[in-house]
Write a structure and sequence with these properties.
This protein is mainly alpha-helical and about 375 residues long. The protein has eleven helices and five strands. The chain has a five-stranded mixed beta sheet, with helices on one face. α3 (about 100-125) runs parallel beside α7 (about 230-245), α6 (about 185-215) packs across α8 (about 250-260) and α7 crosses α9. The protein starts with 8 loop residues before the first strand and ends with a helix.
Protein backbone atom coordinates (compact mmCIF):
# COMPACT_ATOMS: atom_id res chain seq x y z
CA UNK A 1 0.00 0.00 0.00
CA UNK A 2 1.42 3.38 -0.94
CA UNK A 3 2.13 5.94 1.70
CA UNK A 4 -0.18 8.49 0.09
CA UNK A 5 -3.34 6.44 0.65
CA UNK A 6 -5.05 6.26 4.04
CA UNK A 7 -5.25 3.00 5.94
CA UNK A 8 -8.64 1.47 4.96
CA UNK A 9 -9.44 -0.38 8.22
CA UNK A 10 -9.59 1.16 11.69
CA UNK A 11 -9.92 -1.16 14.67
CA UNK A 12 -11.23 0.35 17.92
CA UNK A 13 -10.15 -1.53 21.05
CA UNK A 14 -9.61 -1.07 24.77
CA UNK A 15 -6.16 0.43 25.51
CA UNK A 16 -3.03 -1.71 25.78
CA UNK A 17 -1.39 -2.74 29.06
CA UNK A 18 1.21 -5.27 30.30
CA UNK A 19 2.89 -5.56 26.87
CA UNK A 20 -0.39 -6.86 25.43
CA UNK A 21 -2.44 -5.13 22.70
CA UNK A 22 -5.41 -4.62 25.02
CA UNK A 23 -6.93 -5.40 28.41
CA UNK A 24 -9.81 -7.32 26.80
CA UNK A 25 -9.51 -10.83 25.30
CA UNK A 26 -11.81 -10.09 22.35
CA UNK A 27 -9.76 -6.99 21.49
CA UNK A 28 -6.50 -8.96 21.69
CA UNK A 29 -7.94 -11.66 19.43
CA UNK A 30 -9.08 -9.05 16.89
CA UNK A 31 -5.62 -7.46 16.79
CA UNK A 32 -3.87 -10.83 16.46
CA UNK A 33 -6.21 -11.97 13.69
CA UNK A 34 -5.88 -8.79 11.62
CA UNK A 35 -2.14 -8.78 12.15
CA UNK A 36 -1.86 -12.29 10.72
CA UNK A 37 -4.40 -11.83 7.89
CA UNK A 38 -4.10 -8.21 6.66
CA UNK A 39 -0.78 -6.96 8.07
CA UNK A 40 -0.05 -3.29 7.36
CA UNK A 41 -3.61 -2.65 6.16
CA UNK A 42 -5.24 -1.56 9.40
CA UNK A 43 -4.62 0.81 12.24
CA UNK A 44 -5.65 0.63 15.88
CA UNK A 45 -7.46 3.32 17.85
CA UNK A 46 -7.44 2.90 21.61
CA UNK A 47 -10.90 3.66 22.94
CA UNK A 48 -12.42 3.83 26.43
CA UNK A 49 -16.04 4.47 25.43
CA UNK A 50 -17.86 1.31 24.27
CA UNK A 51 -20.96 3.41 23.53
CA UNK A 52 -19.38 4.58 20.26
CA UNK A 53 -19.64 1.00 18.98
CA UNK A 54 -22.77 -0.04 17.08
CA UNK A 55 -23.47 -2.81 19.60
CA UNK A 56 -22.12 -0.99 22.66
CA UNK A 57 -19.09 -3.27 22.99
CA UNK A 58 -15.46 -3.26 21.93
CA UNK A 59 -13.87 -4.17 19.57
CA UNK A 60 -15.41 -2.83 16.38
CA UNK A 61 -13.95 -2.17 12.94
CA UNK A 62 -14.50 0.79 10.61
CA UNK A 63 -14.07 0.07 6.90
CA UNK A 64 -14.93 3.12 4.81
CA UNK A 65 -18.42 4.10 5.96
CA UNK A 66 -19.27 0.62 7.27
CA UNK A 67 -18.96 -0.41 10.93
CA UNK A 68 -18.30 -4.06 11.79
CA UNK A 69 -18.89 -4.94 15.44
CA UNK A 70 -18.25 -8.08 17.54
CA UNK A 71 -15.20 -10.32 17.23
CA UNK A 72 -16.90 -13.04 15.18
CA UNK A 73 -18.15 -10.50 12.62
CA UNK A 74 -14.71 -8.89 12.36
CA UNK A 75 -13.15 -12.30 11.70
CA UNK A 76 -15.78 -13.09 9.07
CA UNK A 77 -15.13 -9.76 7.39
CA UNK A 78 -11.35 -10.27 7.37
CA UNK A 79 -11.71 -13.82 6.04
CA UNK A 80 -13.97 -12.57 3.24
CA UNK A 81 -11.18 -10.23 2.12
CA UNK A 82 -8.98 -13.30 1.53
CA UNK A 83 -11.32 -14.40 -1.27
CA UNK A 84 -10.29 -11.36 -3.29
CA UNK A 85 -7.04 -11.82 -5.18
CA UNK A 86 -6.25 -8.10 -5.05
CA UNK A 87 -6.70 -7.62 -1.30
CA UNK A 88 -3.57 -9.52 -0.28
CA UNK A 89 -5.41 -10.93 2.74
CA UNK A 90 -4.66 -14.35 4.19
CA UNK A 91 -7.11 -16.99 5.37
CA UNK A 92 -5.85 -18.59 8.57
CA UNK A 93 -8.22 -21.54 8.19
CA UNK A 94 -7.58 -22.27 4.51
CA UNK A 95 -5.88 -25.59 5.29
CA UNK A 96 -8.78 -26.95 7.39
CA UNK A 97 -11.24 -29.44 5.97
CA UNK A 98 -14.98 -29.36 6.62
CA UNK A 99 -14.76 -31.48 9.78
CA UNK A 100 -11.94 -29.41 11.21
CA UNK A 101 -13.82 -26.20 10.47
CA UNK A 102 -16.82 -27.50 12.39
CA UNK A 103 -14.60 -28.40 15.34
CA UNK A 104 -12.95 -24.98 15.15
CA UNK A 105 -16.32 -23.22 15.40
CA UNK A 106 -17.43 -25.35 18.36
CA UNK A 107 -14.16 -24.92 20.25
CA UNK A 108 -14.10 -21.16 19.66
CA UNK A 109 -17.53 -20.93 21.25
CA UNK A 110 -16.28 -23.05 24.15
CA UNK A 111 -13.29 -20.76 24.64
CA UNK A 112 -15.47 -17.67 24.82
CA UNK A 113 -17.76 -19.34 27.35
CA UNK A 114 -15.48 -21.34 29.64
CA UNK A 115 -12.05 -19.74 29.39
CA UNK A 116 -13.75 -16.35 29.09
CA UNK A 117 -15.50 -16.98 32.41
CA UNK A 118 -12.20 -17.87 34.09
CA UNK A 119 -10.65 -14.67 32.74
CA UNK A 120 -13.58 -12.56 33.97
CA UNK A 121 -13.39 -14.33 37.35
CA UNK A 122 -9.75 -13.28 37.75
CA UNK A 123 -10.45 -9.68 36.78
CA UNK A 124 -13.81 -8.96 38.41
CA UNK A 125 -14.73 -11.47 41.12
CA UNK A 126 -11.68 -11.80 43.36
CA UNK A 127 -11.78 -8.83 45.73
CA UNK A 128 -8.01 -8.30 45.84
CA UNK A 129 -7.72 -8.41 42.07
CA UNK A 130 -10.63 -6.06 41.43
CA UNK A 131 -10.04 -3.45 44.14
CA UNK A 132 -6.24 -3.36 43.98
CA UNK A 133 -5.70 -4.02 40.28
CA UNK A 134 -8.64 -4.09 37.84
CA UNK A 135 -10.43 -1.04 39.21
CA UNK A 136 -7.23 0.99 39.35
CA UNK A 137 -6.31 -0.02 35.82
CA UNK A 138 -9.68 1.06 34.45
CA UNK A 139 -9.62 4.28 36.48
CA UNK A 140 -6.24 5.25 35.06
CA UNK A 141 -7.56 5.15 31.48
CA UNK A 142 -11.12 6.46 31.92
CA UNK A 143 -12.03 10.17 31.86
CA UNK A 144 -13.94 12.06 34.53
CA UNK A 145 -16.65 11.29 35.60
CA UNK A 146 -16.70 7.78 34.05
CA UNK A 147 -13.78 6.63 36.18
CA UNK A 148 -15.97 6.87 39.29
CA UNK A 149 -18.72 4.49 38.19
CA UNK A 150 -17.73 2.56 35.04
CA UNK A 151 -15.41 -0.01 36.76
CA UNK A 152 -18.17 -1.07 39.14
CA UNK A 153 -20.71 -1.10 36.32
CA UNK A 154 -18.49 -3.42 34.23
CA UNK A 155 -18.10 -5.69 37.25
CA UNK A 156 -21.85 -5.91 37.71
CA UNK A 157 -22.28 -6.72 34.01
CA UNK A 158 -20.10 -9.83 34.45
CA UNK A 159 -21.78 -10.91 37.67
CA UNK A 160 -24.89 -12.73 36.28
CA UNK A 161 -22.80 -14.71 33.82
CA UNK A 162 -20.26 -15.74 36.47
CA UNK A 163 -23.03 -16.67 38.91
CA UNK A 164 -24.58 -18.93 36.29
CA UNK A 165 -21.19 -20.57 35.70
CA UNK A 166 -20.61 -21.11 39.43
CA UNK A 167 -17.68 -18.69 39.48
CA UNK A 168 -19.36 -16.02 41.61
CA UNK A 169 -20.58 -16.91 45.08
CA UNK A 170 -24.26 -16.26 45.65
CA UNK A 171 -25.08 -13.30 47.94
CA UNK A 172 -26.54 -15.57 50.61
CA UNK A 173 -23.36 -17.60 51.00
CA UNK A 174 -20.84 -14.89 50.13
CA UNK A 175 -18.46 -14.07 52.99
CA UNK A 176 -19.50 -10.68 54.32
CA UNK A 177 -17.08 -8.18 55.74
CA UNK A 178 -17.59 -6.58 59.14
CA UNK A 179 -18.53 -2.94 58.97
CA UNK A 180 -17.88 -2.07 62.59
CA UNK A 181 -15.24 -3.56 64.83
CA UNK A 182 -13.70 -7.00 64.59
CA UNK A 183 -15.61 -10.24 64.23
CA UNK A 184 -15.36 -12.98 66.79
CA UNK A 185 -12.70 -15.57 66.22
CA UNK A 186 -15.27 -18.27 65.37
CA UNK A 187 -16.62 -16.16 62.52
CA UNK A 188 -13.08 -15.57 61.27
CA UNK A 189 -12.42 -19.31 61.17
CA UNK A 190 -15.67 -19.93 59.32
CA UNK A 191 -14.77 -17.31 56.72
CA UNK A 192 -11.32 -18.81 56.27
CA UNK A 193 -12.76 -22.28 55.76
CA UNK A 194 -15.36 -20.94 53.33
CA UNK A 195 -12.75 -19.06 51.30
CA UNK A 196 -10.43 -22.09 51.23
CA UNK A 197 -13.28 -24.34 50.07
CA UNK A 198 -14.31 -21.79 47.43
CA UNK A 199 -10.74 -21.53 46.16
CA UNK A 200 -10.42 -25.32 45.85
CA UNK A 201 -13.72 -25.49 43.98
CA UNK A 202 -12.67 -22.78 41.51
CA UNK A 203 -9.32 -24.50 41.00
CA UNK A 204 -11.10 -27.76 40.15
CA UNK A 205 -13.31 -26.01 37.59
CA UNK A 206 -10.32 -24.30 36.00
CA UNK A 207 -8.29 -27.49 35.81
CA UNK A 208 -11.18 -29.31 34.17
CA UNK A 209 -11.39 -26.66 31.44
CA UNK A 210 -7.63 -26.43 30.90
CA UNK A 211 -7.33 -30.21 30.67
CA UNK A 212 -9.65 -30.27 27.66
CA UNK A 213 -7.36 -27.97 25.68
CA UNK A 214 -4.20 -29.71 26.84
CA UNK A 215 -5.61 -32.97 25.41
CA UNK A 216 -6.71 -31.20 22.23
CA UNK A 217 -3.25 -29.71 21.73
CA UNK A 218 -1.59 -33.10 22.25
CA UNK A 219 2.03 -31.88 22.11
CA UNK A 220 1.47 -30.03 18.83
CA UNK A 221 2.66 -26.48 18.30
CA UNK A 222 -0.86 -25.35 17.44
CA UNK A 223 -4.26 -27.04 17.68
CA UNK A 224 -4.43 -28.07 13.98
CA UNK A 225 -0.77 -28.46 13.13
CA UNK A 226 2.17 -26.16 12.58
CA UNK A 227 0.25 -23.03 11.59
CA UNK A 228 -2.00 -20.91 13.85
CA UNK A 229 -5.72 -20.88 13.14
CA UNK A 230 -8.66 -18.90 14.46
CA UNK A 231 -8.98 -21.27 17.42
CA UNK A 232 -5.37 -20.61 18.41
CA UNK A 233 -6.04 -16.86 18.33
CA UNK A 234 -9.15 -17.21 20.49
CA UNK A 235 -7.46 -19.39 23.09
CA UNK A 236 -4.14 -17.52 23.32
CA UNK A 237 -5.86 -14.14 23.80
CA UNK A 238 -7.48 -15.44 26.99
CA UNK A 239 -4.47 -17.33 28.34
CA UNK A 240 -2.17 -14.33 27.92
CA UNK A 241 -4.54 -12.27 30.09
CA UNK A 242 -4.24 -14.92 32.80
CA UNK A 243 -0.43 -14.96 32.60
CA UNK A 244 0.87 -11.43 32.03
CA UNK A 245 -1.18 -9.02 34.20
CA UNK A 246 0.35 -8.62 37.71
CA UNK A 247 -2.68 -9.80 39.69
CA UNK A 248 -2.40 -9.72 43.48
CA UNK A 249 -4.05 -13.16 43.45
CA UNK A 250 -2.24 -15.34 40.86
CA UNK A 251 -4.49 -18.39 41.16
CA UNK A 252 -4.99 -19.01 37.43
CA UNK A 253 -1.40 -18.30 36.54
CA UNK A 254 -0.12 -20.76 39.12
CA UNK A 255 -2.48 -23.47 37.81
CA UNK A 256 -1.33 -22.94 34.23
CA UNK A 257 2.38 -22.83 34.97
CA UNK A 258 2.37 -25.75 37.39
CA UNK A 259 -0.13 -28.12 35.78
CA UNK A 260 -0.43 -27.10 32.11
CA UNK A 261 2.90 -25.75 30.81
CA UNK A 262 2.01 -26.83 27.25
CA UNK A 263 -0.85 -24.31 27.22
CA UNK A 264 1.53 -21.57 28.37
CA UNK A 265 3.95 -22.51 25.60
CA UNK A 266 1.11 -22.49 23.06
CA UNK A 267 0.09 -18.94 24.02
CA UNK A 268 3.71 -17.78 23.73
CA UNK A 269 3.98 -19.42 20.30
CA UNK A 270 0.96 -17.48 19.04
CA UNK A 271 2.38 -14.29 20.51
CA UNK A 272 5.70 -14.97 18.79
CA UNK A 273 3.99 -15.50 15.41
CA UNK A 274 2.31 -12.11 15.72
CA UNK A 275 5.45 -10.33 16.93
CA UNK A 276 7.33 -11.32 13.75
CA UNK A 277 5.07 -9.00 11.72
CA UNK A 278 5.83 -5.24 11.71
CA UNK A 279 3.89 -3.22 14.26
CA UNK A 280 0.60 -1.63 13.22
CA UNK A 281 0.03 2.14 13.74
CA UNK A 282 -1.63 2.99 17.06
CA UNK A 283 -3.63 6.08 18.00
CA UNK A 284 -3.63 6.54 21.80
CA UNK A 285 -6.84 6.85 23.76
CA UNK A 286 -8.33 10.33 23.55
CA UNK A 287 -8.16 12.43 26.71
CA UNK A 288 -11.46 13.98 27.75
CA UNK A 289 -12.29 16.89 30.03
CA UNK A 290 -15.25 19.15 30.69
CA UNK A 291 -13.96 21.49 27.95
CA UNK A 292 -14.26 18.66 25.44
CA UNK A 293 -18.03 19.12 25.52
CA UNK A 294 -17.58 22.46 23.72
CA UNK A 295 -17.01 22.10 19.95
CA UNK A 296 -13.80 23.76 18.75
CA UNK A 297 -13.10 24.03 15.02
CA UNK A 298 -9.30 23.98 15.41
CA UNK A 299 -8.99 21.41 18.19
CA UNK A 300 -7.76 18.66 15.83
CA UNK A 301 -5.19 20.07 13.39
CA UNK A 302 -4.30 16.60 12.10
CA UNK A 303 -7.72 16.08 10.59
CA UNK A 304 -7.66 19.61 9.20
CA UNK A 305 -4.62 18.78 7.11
CA UNK A 306 -6.17 15.69 5.56
CA UNK A 307 -7.29 16.22 1.98
CA UNK A 308 -8.88 12.83 1.43
CA UNK A 309 -12.34 13.81 2.74
CA UNK A 310 -15.06 12.93 0.28
CA UNK A 311 -18.15 14.97 -0.51
CA UNK A 312 -20.29 13.16 2.06
CA UNK A 313 -17.88 13.94 4.90
CA UNK A 314 -17.59 17.57 3.86
CA UNK A 315 -21.38 17.92 3.63
CA UNK A 316 -21.83 16.34 7.06
CA UNK A 317 -19.22 18.70 8.55
CA UNK A 318 -20.90 21.77 7.01
CA UNK A 319 -24.33 20.72 8.23
CA UNK A 320 -22.97 20.07 11.72
CA UNK A 321 -21.53 23.58 12.03
CA UNK A 322 -24.66 25.06 10.46
CA UNK A 323 -26.71 23.36 13.16
CA UNK A 324 -24.45 24.75 15.89
CA UNK A 325 -24.68 28.24 14.36
CA UNK A 326 -28.47 28.01 14.17
CA UNK A 327 -28.70 26.80 17.77
CA UNK A 328 -26.46 29.55 19.14
CA UNK A 329 -28.27 32.13 17.01
CA UNK A 330 -31.63 31.05 18.38
CA UNK A 331 -30.37 31.25 21.96
CA UNK A 332 -28.88 34.70 21.32
CA UNK A 333 -32.16 36.01 19.84
CA UNK A 334 -34.10 34.63 22.78
CA UNK A 335 -31.78 36.32 25.28
CA UNK A 336 -32.00 39.67 23.42
CA UNK A 337 -35.79 39.55 23.30
CA UNK A 338 -35.95 38.63 26.97
CA UNK A 339 -33.74 41.59 27.90
CA UNK A 340 -35.79 43.99 25.76
CA UNK A 341 -39.01 42.71 27.33
CA UNK A 342 -37.58 43.25 30.79
CA UNK A 343 -36.51 46.82 29.95
CA UNK A 344 -39.94 47.68 28.50
CA UNK A 345 -41.76 46.37 31.57
CA UNK A 346 -39.43 48.33 33.83
CA UNK A 347 -40.01 51.49 31.81
CA UNK A 348 -43.82 51.04 31.98
CA UNK A 349 -43.86 50.58 35.73
CA UNK A 350 -41.62 53.55 36.66
CA UNK A 351 -44.05 56.47 35.65
CA UNK A 352 -46.98 54.78 37.41
CA UNK A 353 -45.05 54.85 40.63
CA UNK A 354 -44.31 58.59 40.15
CA UNK A 355 -47.96 59.42 39.49
CA UNK A 356 -49.04 57.48 42.52
CA UNK A 357 -46.47 59.32 44.59
CA UNK A 358 -47.71 62.69 43.26
CA UNK A 359 -51.33 61.79 44.01
CA UNK A 360 -50.35 60.83 47.54
CA UNK A 361 -48.59 64.18 47.95
CA UNK A 362 -51.68 66.07 46.65
CA UNK A 363 -53.92 64.18 49.07
CA UNK A 364 -51.59 65.02 51.91
CA UNK A 365 -51.61 68.71 50.83
CA UNK A 366 -55.40 68.81 50.75
CA UNK A 367 -55.64 67.22 54.16
CA UNK A 368 -53.12 69.65 55.53
CA UNK A 369 -55.06 72.60 54.10
CA UNK A 370 -58.30 71.36 55.60
CA UNK A 371 -56.69 70.88 58.97
CA UNK A 372 -55.15 74.33 58.72
CA UNK A 373 -58.50 75.86 57.83
CA UNK A 374 -60.21 74.21 60.79
CA UNK A 375 -57.61 75.55 63.14
CA UNK A 376 -58.04 79.09 61.77
CA UNK A 377 -61.79 78.90 62.24
CA UNK A 378 -61.26 77.84 65.82
CA UNK A 379 -59.01 80.81 66.44
CA UNK A 380 -61.55 83.17 64.98
CA UNK A 381 -64.33 81.78 67.16
CA UNK A 382 -62.15 82.24 70.17
CA UNK A 383 -61.47 85.83 69.37
CA UNK A 384 -65.13 86.50 69.04
Amino acid sequence: MSATHPVPCTLHIWPSRWNLPSIDPACIAAVFYLQLTIPGKFKVVECTDPDVSPNGKLPFLIYGHAAVSSLSTIISFASSLAKSTTSGARDLDASLNAEQRAKRTAWCSHVETNIGDLTAHSFYYLDDNFSKFTSRTLTSMLPIPQRYYVPERIREMHRPRLEAAGLWTKPGSEPEKALFGKRPSKEDHKDEYARAFERDRISALAKASFALYANLLDEQKFFFGEQPTTLDIYFASHILLLLDPPFPDQLMRSILEESYPTLVEHARNVQAEVSQIPQYPIAPAQKYSLLSLIPRPFSNPVEKKESQLDETDLRFRRMRWAWFALAFGGVACYVVQLCMHTVIIGADRRPRRVQTHEVDQEDQTVVSDEEGGGENEGVQDGNE
